[in-house]
Design a protein that fits this description.
The N and C termini lie far apart (about 95 Å). The chain is rod-shaped and about 80 Å long. By secondary structure, it is mostly helical. The chain has 6 helices and no strands. The longest helix is centred in the N-terminal third of the chain and has 38 residues. α3 packs antiparallel against α4 and α4 packs antiparallel against α6. Helices cover about 70% and strands about 0% of the residues. About 25% of the residues are buried.
């Protein structure tokens, strides 16, 4: 039986071949996608308030109830989905860096960018859920058209 020595176990390191570079264009793209998705999720989720105010103003001008805008539902769900997508991209990036390159998320600058900004989703995702709740509660409540109608 042949025995392996500790030096033969690390033959790839001793023969001059190194691990592939962890900072590739795909890694940078995925890392920069995390903050982009986080900001887009928050902005889209907050846009539901603007849609609701415009809907309320149109109803008051028309002096009648108008159907609830579907774009508000879309914006509410899109904000939440974008926030969750940012977390998913960061997790997949961390797994790729660990599995393919043997590095942790914080050991490369793209991983550090993604890993740092994904923590903003700790605050963003609950806010997006609250906005989504506000969309559904506004749709159920309707609007008071006032005394002028």
């Amino acid at each position: 039986m042949a025995t392996t020595s500790p030096s033969s176990a690390s033959s790839s390191a001793s023969d001059g071949t190194a691990r592939p570079r962890a900072v590739t264009p795909g890694t940078v793209t995925a890392a920069l996608l995390v903050p982009l998705l986080t900001v887009a999720g928050v902005a889209t989720s907050l846009h539901t308030q603007e849609i609701e105010h415009a809907w309320a103003d149109r109803q008051r001008e028309a002096c009648r109830h108008l159907p609830f805008p579907m774009t508000e539902y879309v914006a509410g769900w899109a904000g939440l989905c974008l926030g969750l997508a940012a977390v998913a991209v960061c997790v997949m990036l961390a797994r790729r860096l660990r599995g393919r390159y043997g590095r942790r998320l914080g050991e490369t600058w793209p991983g550090l960018v993604a890993g740092t900004t994904v923590w903003f989703n700790v605050l963003a995702i609950p806010m997006e859920l609250i906005q989504l709740y506000a969309v559904y509660s506004a749709a159920a409540a309707g609007i008071n058209l006032g005394d002028g109608c």
